[in-house]
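REQUEST FORM: STRUCTURE PREDICTION
Request ID: SP-0412
Submitted by: Lab K.M.
Chain count: 1
Length (residues): 285
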Amino acid sequence: MQRKKISLVLGSGGARGYAHIGVIEELEARGYEIVSVSGASMGALIGGLYACGKMREYKAWVLDLEPLDVAGLLDLSWDRRGFMNGTKVFDHLEQIIGRRKIEELPVRYTAVASDLNRGKEVWFQDGDLLEAIRASIAIPSVFTPVECDGRLLVDGGVLNPLPVAPTMSDRSDLTIAVSLYGAEIETEEEPPPVAERYDSMIEWVASYAKSAFKDYMKKQERLHMFSILDRTFDTMQQSLTKYRLGGYPPDMVIEVPRNVCETFDFHKAAEVIEAGRSIAAEALS
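STATUS: Completed
RESULT:
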């Protein structure tokens, strides 16, 4: 029996993007063949890793990350356009991926970024894979933007959190989209506030900054701003996802609950990957 060919669309959503790994593993376990991947932000990262055959190596790395390990990957940027420049993360990703050209990947791949200068989304379907991913995950105010050919590029989720359109011309049997903004699930107890859970991380970062910046980072107002930015971006992307799906409906949408973890819970890979696998199994059944 011939395997069904799938165009897979992976949405943005920060650390919730770990769920994409579980979804992909479940699809493969059921015999589906993924022939193309389109992604925004974390979806572009996981999709790129899959397209170049390095998803398992990435998974092994993130499964070992503890909160302090994640904090150690934060590299402060003195560029006023973003809090971090992402060099440490991408140095490690380069060790995993190497330098690869998108057009040479065995799986068709598209990374989507947003051009602030023109107010348009940008599709990366050729060129350097790491550079495309870096542009797609540049969360405004968190990561510094990428300047390229007169374009100021930030997170793809700003304009298109679930980019189905790049797969419309694919020769596949099904288009499956994975949204990271599904309805929230009930939990036994409320998770601690974002500010409280990131207090230790903020303290760690502050120790590497100048004394004036350290004092500023310790202020409760800074923590409140971080929480508001997180929730604002989530709300915006949730609304945009619904709008985009109306214009380009896939054959199936697998919805990962919005509260499966917080946007910056990058130390929770194991539970989020397993959640993705479980949710995919239920949806596919």
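NOTES: The longest helix spans residues 220-247.
Reviewed by: T.R.
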